[in-house]
Amino acid sequence: MNLAFTQEQTELRRTVRDFLDKTSPEAEVRRLMETADGYDPDVWRQLAGELGIAGLTLPEEYGGAGCGFVELGVVLEEAGRSLLCAPVLSTVVLAASTLLGLGDDAACHDYLPGIADGTTLATLALTEAAGRWDDADGITATAARDGQDQGRGWTVSGRKAFVLDGHTASLLLVVARTGAGLSVLAIDAGAPGVHRVPRATLDQTRRQADITFTAAPARLLGEEGAAWPVLERVLDLAAVAVAAEQVGGAARVLDMAVDYARTRVQFGRPIGSFQAVKHKLADLHLGVESARSAAYHGLWTAAGDLPDLPLAASLAKACCGDAYVTAATENIQVHGGIGVTWEHPAHLYLKRAHSSRQLFGHPAHHRQRLARYVLAEQAATASPA
Asked: Which CATH architecture has domain 7-120?
């Protein structure tokens, strides 16, 4: 596995960073935090249309660029660095990966071109009140055939919670239980029987919503009852995607801490010259670089569609989630009193660090998952007694 970036991927990083430095500075992030939508439609159109980010990993037949998950990871790392307020994770990772994974050609042709050009905002409505991403048995939303549509249509009833960008998405991919098992159904967000309420969250840079469905008209995607294996892979891809974003944020707060330690003078010398501060920053650097390696391993595993994706995803999510929270916390410690003020950006990264650590499974969950994989591997390779 070659973990070096190509010239094209390096140029993509430079282009995205330059764009986000102009369109997502701290002042703009704070402005968007106070808006109802939580993102700038003009910036999203530029990201999707001019830079082609929304269709980066989509096949060319659907209007995409046909690139891989490594390129998307480069974008997500830069997005995490700038605290980009945009529906990249919900639309580009969750929704698009779900549509592709279900293998419904008609649905892909109907929905993916709109995602690629930025005109369709989509999201996956999976979690319910418990907030569990991995609990297939806990899904209580139901789907039934619509008797008024001669059996061709469906209706969905139930409640979904913690839906990423659920208040602005125009296309909702809802996981519901049918007679055959768990299925994914597409629902127009403006359809009757759909009620969306924005959820108050700690991290105002990433919006969530609670959605109630009351016999909402829906379209079955893929094979009825066969959705969970597809969703498991989608969640692994999402874990890798968030890990890349976390690395970008962790590297940014490390840079903030180092810059402040160089310029903040105490007792007649920069605080970065004190051994305690130097050791703290060195430990942070080690943690961030270790997390970066785990995230990049996950990206290359996802790009190659390798069978050990679940292992790589859990490794990346566990390592990067903890590294980001540690880096964001220590950044505030290095800054001292100013680091806990509203005017300083340190708290914005700390909130994003904590919120992203919960997405798609806490690091403790992924460490348990890793342990199960290791034990299963040992049992499979053990010699008979």
From this structure: Orthogonal Bundle (1.10)
Does residue 1 surpass a pLDDT of 60? no
Q: Where are the domains of the chain?
A: 7-120, 123-226, 229-381
Calpha distance 92→115 (Å, rounded): 7
For 194, phi then psi, to 5°, come to -110, 120
pLDDT value of position 57: 93
Q: Are 317 and 239 in contact (CB under 8 A)?
A: yes
Q: What are phi and psi of 161, to 5 degrees?
A: -130, 160
Q: How far apart are CA 273 and CA 276, in angstroms?
A: 9
Residue 39 CA to residue 54 CA, distance in Å, equals: 15
* CATH architecture for residues 123-226: Beta Barrel (2.40)
Q: What is the mean pLDDT of residues 247-272?
A: 92
List own/partner pairs for 29-36 with CB under 8 A and 24 or more apart. Answer: 29/82, 29/83, 29/85, 29/205, 29/348, 30/348, 32/85, 32/205, 33/85, 33/204, 33/205, 36/198
Specify the fold of 229-381. Answer: Butyryl-CoA Dehydrogenase, subunit A; domain 3 (1.20.140)
Tokens of 71: 């390129």
3-state helix, strand, coil in the chain (%, to 5): 55, 15, 30
- pLDDT, one tens digit per residue, over 198-218 is 999 999 999 999 999 999 999
Model confidence pLDDT, tens digit, residues 146-187: 766 544 689 999 999 999 999 999 999 999 999 999 999 999
**In this structure, are residues 252 and 81 in contact, taking their beta carbons and an 8 Å threshold?**
yes
Q: Looking at residue 149, what is its pLDDT?
A: 58
CA 335 to chain centroid, in Å, comes to 28
Give the H or E element holding residue 260: helix 228-263
Query: Is residue 381's pLDDT more than 90?
Result: no
pLDDT category of residue 250 using cuts at 50, 70 and 90: very high
C-alpha 359: how far from its chain's center? 7
Look at residue 384 in the predicted model and tell me its pLDDT.
Answer: 61
Q: Give CA–CA dist 268/27, Å, rounded.
A: 33
Question: How high is the pLDDT of residue 268?
Answer: 84
